[in-house]
Amino acid sequence: GNSVTQMEGPVTLSEEAFLTINCTYTATGYPSLFWYVQYPGEGLQLLLKATKADDKGSNKGFEATYRKETTSFHLEKGSVQVSDSAVYFCALIPFNTDKLIFGTGTRLQVFP
Amino acid sequence: GAGVSQSPRYKVTKRGQDVALRCDPISGHVSLYWYRQALGQGPEFLTYFNYEAQQDKSGLPNDRFSAERPEGSISTLTIQRTEQRDSAMYRCASSLSRVGETQYFGPGTRLLVL
Question: What is the pLDDT of residues A22-48, one digit of tens each?
Answer without folding.
Answer: 999 999 888 999 999 999 888 899 999
